[in-house]
Amino acid sequence: MKLLLKSVIFIFLTISVIGCLEKKPSKTVTENGVINVITPSDFKTNSVGQVIIDVRTPEEFANGHIEGAININLFDKNFESKLLKLDKSKPVFIYCRSGRRTATASKKASKLGFENVNDLQGGLQKWVKNNYKITK
C-alpha cells in the first residue's frame, strides 16, 4: 500500500513539474523595455523583416534554424558584445531549442538596453511541432 501511495505521489509531482517547465505567453516589463514570451504563430507573423537571433551553438544552428536567423551563441564569451552591435531600439526575436537559453538571453538583452525582446515560447521544438519550416 505504501509503495502504491508513493508511486501515485511521484507521478503527480512529475506531471506537475513538467507542466510548469514550459513558459506560457507573457509580457514582462523591465527597466529598459519589455520581454514578450510569444507563441510560434505570433513569432512567425511578427518577426518578418526583423532581427531573429538563434542563441544555440553553431553546430545546432547548422542542423536547422528559422529562415533569416543569425546565430549568436549564448555560451560564446563574446555574446553580449555581439548583441551590442544590433540596434537596441528595434525589436529582436530570440529563440533556442526549448526556450531555456532564450530566457537567459532575453534577460541579458534587456539588461543591455534592448527595448522590445521577443522570446519564442517552447523554442524551435515548438516551432517544428507547429509544422513551421526550418532551413539549413
From TrEMBL:
UniProt xrefs under PANTHER family: FAD-DEPENDENT OXIDOREDUCTASE, PYRIDINE NUCLEOTIDE-DISULPHIDE OXIDOREDUCTASE
Domain of life: Bacteria
Annotated Rhodanese domain residues: 46-136
Name of this protein: Rhodanese-like domain-containing protein
InterPro entries reported in the protein's UniProt record: GlpE_sulfurtransferase, Rhodanese-like_dom, Rhodanese-like_dom_sf
Signal peptide positions (record): none
Alphabetical list of SUPFAM superfamilies matching this protein: Rhodanese/Cell cycle control phosphatase
Coiled-coil annotated residue ranges, if any: none
